[in-house]
Amino acid sequence: MFKSFSHIYIEDGIRDHWRTKEILKRFPNAIPIPIRHYKDSFNRNSQNFRVQKETPKLILAEKKEHFLYPGSDFSPNFSHPHFYYNTIALNCIYDCEYCYLQGMFPSANLVLFVNWEDFFDATKEFIEKNQSLYLALSYDTDLLALESFFPATKAWLEFAATEPRLSLEIRTKSTNYSQIAKFSPNPNVILAWTISPQAIIETIEHGTPPLHTRIKVINQAIQDGWKVRICIDPILRVPNWKTHYQSLADTLGKELKIDGLVDISIGGFRMNIDFLKRMMDVRKDSSILFHAFEKKDKIVSYSNLETEEILELMSSALHQYVSPSEIKVSYT
Amino acid sequence: MSALFFAVLSEAKPWITKLQAKPISHLGKFRIFQKEDHYIIISGTGKLSAALAVSEFAHILPKPDRNQMKIWNLGIAGSNNNELSLGDFFWIHKITDAATKRDFYPDRIEKSKFTKETTLTTFDRPITKNENSDRFLFLPQEELKGIQLIDMEGSGFFEAASLYFPLENISLGKLVSDHLEGTFCKAETVESMMAEKMEGLFDEWTSPLPWTGIDSIETFDWPLVEAFIQNLRLTETMKHDLKKSIRFFRLRNPNTILPFPEESLKIHLKSKSDLKEFFEQWRESLHV
């Protein structure tokens, strides 16, 4: 099979964009394929997400509308009145078995929008109108993980430095902190790392960095003065889950600079039912998707009892090291 | 399993000979040659013929076979690009239908000994860039700008194939046969060009797709469950949920015997509620 990004689809309209050229320089051996609109390739019927994930291609495109979306009900809004996200990239280089993207998108190929200035303009306009904005920047992707060839996180940090009414959350599993380490910490930016027990990283979060390296860069970010959030979300009921998550809390208590954290966000597995149905079709080898979930409205999740058990165990385990006020439940 | 579509016999001949394929007897219009799990189909020229041939072939196969099948279209193509040499072979990553302006994007997933790729434009008539040819459609340079390879089947083949076969199983490859001089290639020339490239391509065509395989739950576990539940009058929803539970159990316990309720309990199932309780208990035993 071809290795990742062997082919790059390029919208005709941004073929000569300087950012397109910069990205192409990073992949000198990739085969360029001209396309009229990214959806002609990305939204085709009957694509095989699993096969494409083995050899993902890049799609370079221009986002023409919808530069801000209201935050999902599945995500914590951290009590902010204007909680939005944007989609400067679609899809992720990692391959987590629980990831909703595989139920949401028809393709596993990675779409990168190169017209960042339009995102900045739309964000400025929103802030002028509403006076504040809490923006989740890395939502349908893991932006920091792409930083070596798509340095959008740096650009947003520069932008945030000029917009004091903008609060950013940059969520990641990557250890690419060094890419942004030279920036002065911005009190309006939260760097949020999703972490899991090492056993889950190895068996379910395919391609993601190990726990100890994530902890190492988190500590570095805290030491540098960044606001850091830890997300233990989703908590999964895998075999021996209690042992794994207790052990994770103990590891954090021993190895993480807990005092420097903004908060720890915890939540059980939950999903839009249509996404889960599609995921079960494409990923028949993942037991976590075939749990006997409860359905309520259009949402599937662990049962109330199971969710309570998860949150209780995780909270109790963390309380040994963290004050209760620092633990936020992202979804019940 | 693999299938290979050609427009004309001269393109197919080296492959039929190498495969030692024999014509199959069937009621359809198109010539289909077979050796074991491999098929060669001659569609005739033009995108309509190509699409009809794909459709006819698809209908002689059950869907599970189609899902496991590698499906290729190979053939000759004219080139507007003089830098492309006669006999060069290209995989196609984009097809444009000149009549409808629609674009199609075959996924490039498997690596090949032949590394060159380009775009293909499918026209309804043979094209020439020389004005004095009455059997070809003359197109001036400005209309040919940006066009690499030209054929008469690609878009029809791909559009039809993507209706019946998984997208990722479909590939097109074209040999440069001319530079649009307005003359038809001789059959012997086409045959020898194709024979030369076939030596490198044959093993790639006959090797199984790396992403197809058997689903052990569908193949081994579910038939046992179906046999057990055949007299139970489960609803389709219950069967669907049961299958999910069976999958959960098997993925969590790959080497354990599947738990079944006691066979004798079946005779005590007098009402719907008895059945429901029996069913729920069984599912609970699978979610351990």
Automatic annotation (TrEMBL), chain A:
Q: Which Pfam families match?
A: SPL (PF20903)
**InterPro entries, alphabetized:** SPL
Source taxon at top rank: Bacteria
Check the record and name the PANTHER family matching this protein: SPORE PHOTOPRODUCT LYASE, SPORE PHOTOPRODUCT LYASE-RELATED
* Protein name as it appears in the record: DNA photolyase
Species assigned in the record: Leptospira mtsangambouensis
Automatic annotation (TrEMBL), chain B:
InterPro entries for the chain? Nucleoside_phosphorylase_sf, SPL
**Domain of life assignment:** Bacteria
Q: Which PANTHER family match?
A: SPORE PHOTOPRODUCT LYASE, SPORE PHOTOPRODUCT LYASE-RELATED
Protein's name in the database? Phosphorylase
Organism of origin? Leptospira mtsangambouensis
Q: What is the lineage of its organism?
A: Bacteria, Pseudomonadati, Spirochaetota, Spirochaetia, Leptospirales
